Amino acid sequence: MIREDLANLWYQAIFSRYSVRAYERKTVPRDFREEIESLLNGFSPMCNGARAVLLEDGAEEILCGFWGIFGKIRGADMLLVLIGETSHPNYEVAVGFLGEGIILHATSQGLGTCWVAGTYSRRMVEARVNLGDSEKIMAVSPIGFAQVSGTDMEGKSVQAPRVIHRRKPLQSIMRGLPVEDFPAGYLEMLEAARLAPSAINRQPWRFMVEPDGITVSAAGFELLPMTARRLDCGIAMLHLEVAARAHGIHGEWKYITEPPAVAKYVVLP
Ligand SMILES: Cc1cc2nc3c(=O)[nH]c(=O)nc-3n(C[C@H](O)[C@H](O)[C@H](O)COP(=O)(O)O)c2cc1C
């Protein structure tokens, strides 16, 4: 279960987080760094199967913009590396859960982040991190101060984006109980999960709402492979539990072994 003080902090961050791709060339103060370091090995049993490492230099070279859609990520001070223990049955979900907790924590300290699973050099990260036999690098995130406004290195003017979360409407991603019959807090939990970031913003999750809890499933008919969809579901699950805890709801995750269902958040009386 996520600690309540962290959940309250992270719940606010859900609404202010966005993918930051332009950073001030400014060093992250040591106490901020230590805050992040305290979470690298997990903050809940749901993180089992994942770990993270913080690289204090080299972020810019590792983050290449060869996909072109978003352009190169510039100026970040540090790089968070998210590692999955592939022998663990739910490692993708664990990486999503762990990574998003760290990302929301960084957001709550005024830092910018951006999940990156495609536009980085995995080879360069592998050269910097000691991996166990069945460990795999799953994603990275720059961490630093978002560039608010001004000019970038090429002299182009940069404006901080307003936080706009382009997401599917809730009705299109949920089934089960109608909204008017939701127990207290369920709408907030689903709304928080809906705002989760996902690879190419595919939002590959679906929610089954029942009186005793909410089941998260990976959406079918998506272009993303199942590994990526399960990682994204782990991110949405972190948001869902954070909102539950911030609204005084206690529950626990139960993994489901029949895909595409991933896990059910069972609310405790
Ligand atoms: C697992 C994952 C992988 C991602 N990979 C990339 C990437 O390779 N490059 C990139 O620029 N953004 C990447 N993103 C950021 C998404 O494009 C972004 O989260 C999504 O468009 C929603 O926008 P928002 O984060 O501003 O709310 C990734 C996000 C997730 C969750």
Description:
By secondary structure, the chain is of the alpha+beta class. The protein folds into two domains: 18-159, NADH Oxidase; 170-267, 3-Layer(aba) Sandwich (NADH Oxidase), CATH 3.40.109.30. It is 29% helix and 22% strand. The chain is built from seven helices and eleven strands. It has helices at residues 4-16, 30-37, 59-62, 91-108, 122-126, 186-194, 226-246; strands at 50-55, 78-85, 112-113, 135-144, 149-151, 157-159, 174-176, 205-210, 213-218, 251-255, 261-267. Strands 7-8-9-11-10 form a five-stranded mixed β-sheet, with helices on one face. A four-stranded antiparallel β-sheet has the order 1-2-4-3. Helix 6 links the parallel strand 7 and strand 8. Helix 4 (91-108) packs across helix 7. The longest helix is centred in the C-terminal third of the chain and has 21 residues, at 226-246. It is globular. The two termini are 15 Å apart. The mean pLDDT is 93. The structure holds flavin mononucleotide. Flavin mononucleotide (FMN) binds at residues 18-19, 70, 114-119, 139, 165, 197-201, 231-232, 235. The site of flavin mononucleotide (FMN) has 19 residues, from helix 7.
